[in-house]
Amino acid sequence: MTLKQSPLSTLVVGLLLGLMVYLAIYTRIDGTSNYPAFSSRSLMNHGATANSASDIVSNPAVTNAIDQIITSVGLTNSTEFTVKAISDDIAKLVAEYMIHKFGQSAVSSQPQQQQRYISTYNNSNADLPVIYVVTPTYRRSEQIPELTRMAQTLLNVAAIHWIVVEDSTSLSPAVAHLLQRYGIPYTHLNAQMPDKYKKLKTKPRGVSNRNAALRWVRQNQKSGVLYFADDDNTYDIRLFEEMRYTKKVSMWPVGLVTSLGLSSPVVNKDGVVVDFYDGWIANRKFPVDMAGFAVSVQLLLDKDNAYMPFVPGHEEDGFLKSLGITNADIEAKANRCTQILVWHTQTKSNKPANKATAATRRYNETNIGLLQELVV
Fold first, then answer.
1. Which of 1, 17, 104, 304 is the most buried (most CB within 10 A)?
2. Catalytic residue among 316, 331, 365, 373
3. Which residues pair with 266 in a beta bridge?
């Protein structure tokens, strides 16, 4: 096994080996506070049964890097140390290097020591325009499962900021916990539907949420792209790169929506949007689905009065018209609108959970009580 002995390769290999040693050691800790003594000799012999491990440790470049790590953690005058001491110190070195390399912000542990799933893609390139993903949501049985699915999609997208807005009088601890756990840059808001609209047979759902997000963007941002992404859709991660450099308004097809199973701009051979294909055209100038367009933040700032109307069925059309655009301003994305990168899949509606059985004496002081807090 041959390794180049440049300073950079030595550092990287050393840190990676340190991480391997840390994981190998730490997984053997039984969880108690009495950590076993661990000698420097046993460290060198640890895991040496594999030929590849022996080759790595015997390489001068690697051993030099290990010596640097030992010096860094202050073990040059010690032959005995605890597993916790060496594993924690190596973990800190590796974490600091990864933060430096990927441009991440250090995040302190939550009180419950919960695991965080932080994507190396998020904010990894400060030069990328940020996509502000607006997700209106409300408390229901499917809420947390759908937000979980969406979070795991967004973990794979660079330079995003997730604006989650609840239709409620206060912020839900369950949603807050989810947002904190995934580590995606986010803003958590609440905006309840006005009472006068709750009496309507067909309600303008999500309008208060989206308008609250628009206000937040206007007050806090100067550039980027805005996208309304409902939590009951399925998103191909390629979609976000399609919209990232939107100049004014970009559009694309949405699958599994309306009676036609499709909503899309109609694009001619020159790549120009000339019409719209949708199961409900009505008298709408822009008969598109909410998931089928993105807007430049700069355009939003230029149009102070651009908001979404409380008119069921005309939310998208009213908002786009308030931006003052024409078909000539629309950028046809997804290979000139020949690809479907978002689907209105929707999760099957579930009945509220029957919690009566869980409240019986049989399940007192068991995990079932805790699980009841996670279902509706």
1. 17
2. 316
3. 275
